[in-house]
Amino acid sequence: MHAVVVKVKINDSKAAESHLREKTVPRVSQAPGFVAGYWTRKDNTGVSMVIFDSEDAANPAKEQLPSMMADAVTLEDAEVREVVANA
């Protein structure tokens, strides 16, 4: 398994959460190889980890990030990481 780990700056928390729930989560959960997704927030930062069944599924998801970002957030970092353990 591989994870797409994303860090964002939240510019408008209400608009960001609305976009996340209404557009991002439904779209990501339909992506090929999707296993699970977790989106977190602390103050004006967000970190998400979306798990895919393979690196081949995770890489295209990472490449689509810029087109999926709401105006309410600023993409700060995104990377694909291998999942080495889970519970």
CATH class: Alpha Beta
Strand content: 35-45%
Major sheet strand order: 2-3-1-4
Shape: globular
Number of strands: 4
CATH domain fold name: Alpha-Beta Plaits
Number of domains: 1
Structural class label: alpha+beta
Low-confidence stretches: none
Give Rg in angstroms: 12 Å
In short:
The chain has helices spanning 13-29, 55-63, 65-68, and strands at residues 2-10, 34-42, 45-52, 73-82. With 87 residues, it is of the alpha+beta class.
What does this structure look like?
This protein is an alpha+beta fold and 87 residues long. The protein has a single domain (2-82), classed as Alpha-Beta Plaits (2-Layer Sandwich), CATH 3.30.70.100. Helices cover 34% and strands 41% of the residues. It has helices spanning 13-29, 55-63, 65-68, and strands at residues 2-10, 34-42, 45-52, 73-82. A four-stranded antiparallel beta sheet has the order 2-3-1-4, covered by helices on one side. A hairpin with a 2-residue loop joins β2 (34-42) and β3.
How is the secondary structure organized here?
Elements: E1 2-10, H1 13-29, E2 34-42, E3 45-52, H2 55-63, H3 65-68, E4 73-82
Antiparallel strand pairs: 1-3, 1-4, 2-3
Tags for this entry?
single chain; 87 residues; alpha+beta; globular
